[in-house]
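1st attempt posting a full record on here, be nice pls
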Amino acid sequence: MEPQEIREGYLVKKGTVLNSWSAVWVVLSEDGLDYYKKKTDHSPKGMIPLKGATLISPCQDFNKRTLVFKITTERKQDHFFQASHMEERELWVKDIRRLLSCLNNGKKFARKSTRRSIRLPETVNLAELYALMKDQDDGVKELKLEQDNQIFNHCFTGTGATVIEWLISKGKARNRPEALMLATGLLTEGFLQPADDLSKEGAEGGEQTTFLDQTKALYYFTDSGFFCEGYSSDEDVLLKDEFRGNIIKQGCLLKQGHKRKNWKVRKFILRDDPAYMHYYDPSKGDDPLGSIHLRGAVVTAVEYVPDAKKYDVDGNLFEIITSDETHYFLQAATSEERKEWIKAIQTVSKSGK
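the predicted structure (as tokens):
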């Protein structure tokens, strides 16, 4: 019987022999983690057994690399992975941590057990509750907060006039313990994410995820434009106009080059107002390789790409045609992911500057 696949996607991995970092396709299953040079490859480049392994996140072994987590196998071999954005890392870490616990306790991996473990009633619809919390007029307000020499954008606190109070004031919970149970459910199921070290410690410190009813514990909506920045000792530098928009969506896609027509993994960040999509080499720094101005652009799903080699194409293709008629061909990992990108780009191209 084939082991159940738990999560798959692009991550950047540090080489085990050389110190180079490269994007790989990673598949997490019930018996371990496999990584491939390409998503279309049939044989993995490497296999990491997870029974008896340990996980460290965030891993701060590399000064200029953020969003890294480390897996150390039972035989003391270290493997370093880097996600493209914070939400992505937290989702991988959450599943790996839970799988390690299941493997070490002889249990079968299951995500749904968390609802029972915090005694959340089956009648509670967390997705509906999340949508209400995100309502711009009547929901939880996203703030810009300063704490510990850092600026947290698009986030909110666990207590004060935010999550716990909102749940009680809107009649979603009768008291603080009930509100705390709901908030923990939202955090456990991935609707909310911990933003700072204190909230991350609560989320990851024990066997169960814990939402902290504290003013210094910061959280954010999973699909928000959350980002964290440190204070700069230099004079503030104005961002280019095209970087000013809120982050609408981010993640890795395959992009076809304009000259050589080969496909490479690129990290994309979609922003609105002004409407831009920047792309980066996920294994290198924060400077973009290029940008796509989306105002007036057309984006469509396609089944064929000119000059593409068959073995490089795995379906889920879409094309962006900008207002100056530049064509970009991209591949998503799944059909659902392709739909999400197309919808987000279409929205931004119509509303952004």
